[in-house]
Amino acid sequence: MMFLHPETDAGNLLKGVTKMIIDNVRIYQPSGEEKPEELYAVEFEGEYIKAVYPSPYQGEGPVIDGESRVLAPGFNDSHMHLLRYGLLVKELDLREADSFKEMKEMIQKHYGVLEEGQWIFGKGFNDAGFEDLERPLTAKDLNDIQVNAYIYLIHEDGHECVISENALDLLKEEKEFSRIPESFKERDTSGQMNGRFKDTAVHFINHRFWGRDKEEAKNAIKAALPRLSSYGITSVHTDDRSFIGSFARLYEAYTDLEQEGNLPIDVQLHHYVFHKDDITEFVEKETMRTGDGTASVTVGAVKLFLDGTQRLHTASMRNPYPDEPSKSGPLIYNQKEVNEMVRYAAQNQMQVAMHAIGDRAVEQAVTALEQEEACTKDLRHRLIHAQTLAPDLIERISASHAYVETQPSFLLGEWDKKEKWVPEELVPFSDPYKSMKKAGIPLTLSSDLPIGSINPMVTVGTAVTRQDLEDQPEGGWMPGEKLTVDESFYGMGHAPAYLEFKEYRKGKVSPGYQADFVLLDQHPLESPPGRLKDIKVTETWHKGIQTYAESE
Fold first, then answer.
1. What residue stretch is flagged as signal peptide (predicted)?
2. 68, 201, 204, 394 — which has fewest CB within 10 A?
């Protein structure tokens, strides 16, 4: 037996070694038969787990001492924007700006000379917190940066942007922009667009104005990957097309990284579309369909936005917003259009993922998924967010066999605002995780990175406690909707594997499954619920290769 010290770089030491054993570990996985107090040895060969034995391991082969740490399946984040997150790491990040003055200084420092005709991009501003501004930024304000520049700044939550007057002139020339609902375009008192846009309009502008070339995308993704590995993330489903413009270029960027040995995760790539023509173009140009691709990069779902966000009162509700009774939020498409897009995608073997936050948008999505031609059970279509429901919608989602992607970390900053956005009688059906589980609806937990927390343990902890990072409110918000630890880990591991049609090879510590796992410093079932968020990943392994090890 060859023993290796756990603090060494096992990936480098074991080049050329296909068999590996991690001994002296406790195993935790949802519904697993392993006993928390018992120690095990996990053997894997190449990319897959071969066997699980009682510890100490008695056979031959290279062995690493797991030091009685907890080995669990790697995390699979089923909803994020990885390229956008990488761009935040690589490009101008305005999240720390507390004033308009400070933001201007950050832009000047980043770009140096600001010239006429220059493109200026920035991400992450939050003008609601600016000390020297009492209203939202508009195009006229950006003249203070450079009056003749093309400026495009994205809000920290990704659902709002402001562009300069020069950029606004370009946008007015885009005929397709007329198809974006007026509710997503702000206008001044004279009826002119003021440079401020929301939700789908933002995605349109991303797609038209902010496409990167392949090398820029690769560099941004590479900048983000070590952070994902440090939190134990071994698989992601990501919507990146808006930030690169072309699905083909996006796929090539990821597969290049894979071929170069620089992709320590599995990736499913969604294809965001604005209307049926986009789906038709994809079907006619691309031969791949959902699940097709390489060993680590596969085609995901066709993604549709059916509504906006509750903060902006653009999530489509069946009732008016309590704090804005004149608003109930627009639907981006009519029912016939959604039905047709879902049917067409399904006929061409494409899974569909629909962003639907308000209950009216959820109802529209479910109506489309109830069509026999949608093949919802077979294709495993998914609803994203579904933050406001009702008993009738829970029943219909369950009967449709659709999956629901939830983002528990949103509750960290929203639990105390729900009563402003949702009628009193529907507040108990906001983010109703337990009710959906009881109804048999398959749930995944995810981050919506960079909007939600990158840390899966924060996501898990929030789902279990329904409290923010200050442990508020006491007892948890709508405590009847708490998930168990097992349910939460399942939602960040095995459940997303079903959406990839890989439930028999990902998401478990079991023979035949990918050797994707983490070592944790505590056993989740032994941690107080409020401290789940503090559990740390000490090592991450993807397909039998160590991708992260905590430094001393």
1. none
2. 68
Residue pair 204/177 in contact by the 8 Å Cβ criterion: yes
C-beta separation of 203 from 305 below 8 A: yes
CB 388 within 8 Å of CB 429: yes
Query: What string of H, E and C letters represents the secondary structure of 193-214?
Result: EEEEEECHHHHHHHHHHCCCCH
User: In residues, how long is the chain?
Assistant: 552
The reported pTM is 0.88
Q: What are phi and psi of 337, to 5 degrees?
A: -65, -45
DSSP symbols for 283-294: HHH----TT-BS
Q: Give the pLDDT confidence score for residue 3 in this predicted structure.
A: 41
Share of the chain above pLDDT 90, in %: 74
**7: confidence class by pLDDT, cuts 50, 70, 90:** very low
Average pLDDT, the chain: 92
Tell me, what's the pLDDT at 438? Answer: 98
**Helix H or strand E encompassing 87:** helix 82-90
Q: How far is CA 534 from CA 25, 179, 229, 417, 469, in A?
A: 20, 46, 17, 26, 10
- Residue 327: helix, strand or coil by DSSP? coil
The sign of the CA dihedral 97, 162, 416, 483 is: negative
Closest CA relative to residue 367, chosen from 337, 387, 391? 337
Side chain identity at 202, as an amino acid letter?
V
Query: Which pLDDT belongs to residue 224?
Result: 94
Picking from 305, 308, 310, the residue whose alpha carbon sits closest to that of residue 426 is: 310
Q: Is the pLDDT of residue 14 over 70?
A: no
- Per-residue confidence at 273, pLDDT binned at 50, 70, 90? very high
